[in-house]
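Supplementary Note 3. Input sequence used for the single-chain structure prediction.
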Amino acid sequence: MIPLEWELVLSGLLFSIGLYGVLARKNAIMVLMSLEIVINAALLNFVAFSSYSNDASGQVFALLGIAVAAADAAIGLAIFLSIYQTHGTVDMDRVRFLRW
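The predicted structure, written as discrete structure tokens, is reproduced below.
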């Protein structure tokens, strides 16, 4: 069994990588992928603490979170596809939402 500390360190690293991606990237698809990494880091915490305390509620919540993350990715990609069709780019700095 993997110690709880290792799982928390992995989750912290994933969260840091995702947060850097959200703050530093300008491409909207890369920001969405980084946001998914952040969500997965939070879900890893739920699973780690759930297995540590022998309670299945954290694992059930993680499954629900996976479904929400999949819906988030699908809706985000649909929005970015619409933005690409209207503006020709998904660069966050070049897209102005108030000017068509």
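DSSP finds three helices and no strands in the chain. The longest helix spans residues 57-87.
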